[in-house]
Amino acid sequence: MARRALKLASLTAAASGIYLYGNKFLDPSDFGVVRVGRTIATTALITYDYLTSLRSVPYGSEEYNFLKSQVHLRSAERLRKLCCVNRGTFIKVGQHLGALDYLLPEEYTRTLKVLHNQAPQSTRQEIEQVIREDLGKEVLLLVVKQIFPDFEFMWLVEEAKKNLPLELDFLHEGRNAEKVADMFKNFDFLKVPRIYWELSSSRVLLMEFMEGGQVNDRAYMERNGIDVNEISRNLGKLYSEMIFVNGFVHCDPHPGNVLVKKCPASGKAHIILLDHGLYQVLSESFRMDYCRLWQALIKADMKRVQKYSRRLGAGDMYPLFACVVTARSWEAVNRGIDKSPVSASEDMEIRSNTATYLPQITQLLNNVPRQMLLLLKTNDLLRGIELALNTRASSSSFLNMSRCCIRAVSKYQRSKSHSLYRKAQISLTEALSLWQISLYELFLWLKGSQLGNWVIALLRRRHHSMY
């Protein structure tokens, strides 16, 4: 197979070279046949590397695992270079693949994550040309499918086809930026660049210049006196509001699009949200099911986890769906995902099980609503930020999510009720639930503060003195 692919790649490259030789004004990258030729050649090299490097090594041995990791790394680097040289849609697909931590080996996601903030720049004409070349995009996914035959990536093709034209309409991006700025105008920590409409068009977008450190740069935050936990807490609060309350979700929060900066005047840390081309608008029914799923996950209510997972398209694979949504093991889901942080052993278990259940994950992703796919990508990017900041699975993130879910469900229930008494009952239940969360939050704060430790020590001394 590798020999046949190499032969085809050679013929393609030769034909392209002969055609382009006589025209010095044409960029070879403008032709789909050249992109396809590069892609086929990359496929052949990767396939040949896997076949020859692992052929004579005992499967499952320490040497096999080491060599497999090295081949993964080399192959991922070849894919990264292919994305960079072919540009356009290849970059977008590479960025998607780099966010699939729960599906692809670490060597691939780590290498392709570079495309989140160090992608080569392309002109508008180059990007529009690539949009028309759907074949090139699909061939790139066939490269990955060749490496991981159990994984079916066609849903990624469909999503890229649907979303890319929106991302390239700068007026659409400007409207999204203004909409989200107005939606969260009460969040004083959030900054969205102002749009200069008089100097903007569908092809040109002029906005306010803002700068700062990347949101996953812990060292930058420490140098500038920015509280890492506060940033993580505010980012979680922002996205919980987007997903559960408003149903209008910025779906590309990779570190290059989320900056942090300390305001010299006020001393407050700001989160700067960039690149507003890709938003997911959640339907009301989907948003309510997703809210109730998370409520069930936080409470470890497995009957409701099953119910709402099925409603979201998971079917009998609801345990796998719960693990994918939370990026936790099934044991942790049953125990309660807010009860303990992610341990190194659990993380290793998740990665090893991903390879085992890859066909089922493939089927699951093909079954769930398309809205879920961008949410899963968004969740993965946010978890990557939390991991870099060492704030993953913190109690504050679950408290914010709980608040937003309670508010969203209560608002929905009130909108469907025609009884004033029932509306008042819903509002009272909402207020009590939010009050309980605030009380629990106060308890956690006291437990972790010096004042709390002092009070606990005093109570213990009084208890011992009484006996």
What this model shows, in words?
The strands form two sheets. Strands 1-5-4-2 form a four-stranded mixed β-sheet, covered by helices on one side. A two-stranded antiparallel sheet has the order 3-6. Helix 12 packs across helix 19 (395-416). The relative contact order is 0.08. Strand 4 and strand 5 form a beta hairpin. Residues 1-27 have low confidence and may be disordered. The protein is built from 21 helices and six strands. The protein has 467 residues and is mostly helical.
Core attributes:
467 residues; mainly alpha; two-stranded antiparallel sheet; 67% helix
The number of helical runs is 21
- Which percent bin holds the helix content? 55-70%
| Sequence of secondary-structure elements | HHHHHHHHHEEHHEEEEHHHHHHHHHH
Q: What distance separates the N and C termini?
A: 82 Å
Walk me through the topology.
Elements: H1 2-21, H2 32-54, H3 62-86, H4 89-98, H5 106-112, H6 124-131, H7 134-147, H8 154-167, H9 170-183, E1 190-191, E2 213-214, H10 218-223, H11 228-246, E3 248-250, E4 258-262, E5 269-273, E6 279-281, H12 284-299, H13 302-311, H14 318-326, H15 330-335, H16 344-356, H17 358-367, H18 370-389, H19 395-416, H20 420-448, H21 450-466
Parallel strand pairs: 1-5
Antiparallel strand pairs: 2-4, 3-6, 4-5
Helix pairs in contact: 1-2, 2-3, 2-7, 3-4, 3-5, 4-5, 4-8, 7-8, 11-18, 11-19, 12-13, 12-19, 13-14, 19-20, 20-21
